[in-house]
Every structure is written in C-alpha cells, then in structure tokens.
Amino acid sequence: MKVDIIASGSGGNCIALTNEGRTILIDAGVAKTKIAKRLLECGIRPDQVTDIFITHAHGDHIKGLPLANKYRIKVWATDGEWKGISGVDEDLRRVVETRYSKYEMIELGGVHLYPFKTHHDAYEPVGYAIEPDNNGLRTCVVFDTGKVDDDMLSLMEGHIYIVESNHDPDMVVASDYPLSVQSRILSDLGHLSNQQTAEALQKLIRGKGERIYLTHLSSNNNSPILAEMTVKAALRQKGFIAGTHYEIEVVST
Asked: Does domain 2-250 sit in CATH 3.60.15.10?
C-alpha cells in the first residue's frame, strides 16, 4: 500500500492510499485545487481517484469535497455524517452501512475497508482499516478521537498506522484557548494527546517493521519533536527501537 499524506494538521487532512493502481482518499479537508496539485506531485492524476472515505463532517476533513463532483469520485460517509455534508451530487453519495450495530466491510476490487466507531463531537465519526487482498498488510487511519477503546484496537492492528497525535495536555491548559475549548480538546470526544497515541501504539506495535505516521498535530499545542519523542519513549519500554523494529514519521503539512 502506497501512502501519500496530502494534508495533515489543523488546516486540513487528506490521505491518499494506492494499491495496484487504485487510489482512494481518506478525507478531503483542504481546497480541491490543493488536493489536485498534491496528488499530481505524488504521481497520481485526480481522475485516478475512485473513492473518498470521510471520517467525519468537520470542515478540516470535508472542505475539498467539490473534487468529487469534478472528477466523478464516489464519496462514502456514515448516515450520521451525511447530515453535515452538502454539495455532493446524489449519484456519487454512498453510505457506510451498519448491520447488527457493526459497520459492514466495504469491498473495492481487491481492497477491503473496515469502518469502526471513533469518539469525537460529530454525528457518527469513524476510522478506517484498509486491507489489500494481494498482501494482507492492513493500513489503519484514525483522525479525530478523544480515546482509543478495545473495539478500535481490535480493528486497528496491522502494519501501517496513520494516527493523530494532536496535542500535549499541559500546552493546552497553558494556552489562551477559552476553558470550553480546552475542555473539548481534552475530553473523550476531543482529540488524542501524544501520550494517548503512544499508549495505543504500545498495544499495537509488534516490532515487525511497522510504519507509523503521526498526523493531525495541533499547530498551537504540540510540536513534531514532542510527539515523536513521546511515542519513541513508550515503544522503547517494550524494547522496540525506531529504525530497527519500526519506522516513524511525523507529518505536519
């Protein structure tokens, strides 16, 4: 699975995943012109994108959805999140379905997607685990969530982790954000702190060459080096060393 981070951070989020010539996007949170430009820089024509999967309908995850109408790209979101999405042509809209309270697997010509519930102040937010038939190496994308529970962990376990490491709690508390905003960020319906992300990865990483991308860093309440060092320290407790047992990259674009 080829991973290209089109955008990551408070200004917008978009991930391109390519397998055997098929490209899908997870979120489209920056302007459609920027997405198209970045795709071309990554060697992907915008008209090669077949599907866009939305985690939730906040602006920094859906701003670029006009791209779908222009290039006739199918857009997938949960029934709840469609309440916050407008402007996508009807024939391009797809619903991430549930059956018996569990999200159904979505098959896209050699790629299986497994949506799972996350915890954020949105209608019905989800993360996605993506597994190609050709190698079985699972890629997991988790953006905005205030916590990682056992149900999430069971679907996240894989080889590539694209996960938010949003903030340092002490920096949030010391910030000039209103108390209501601070409480939202730090709540179970807010965003993952560096330590929460590190604790989740401690449970997931097996030291088999996994790739970690730390994303969605706050521009005001975090720093790339702090996010990276927090995860490395947690994994070192399990005897895993970056560059030997796993690879890590902090993405802030």
From this structure: yes
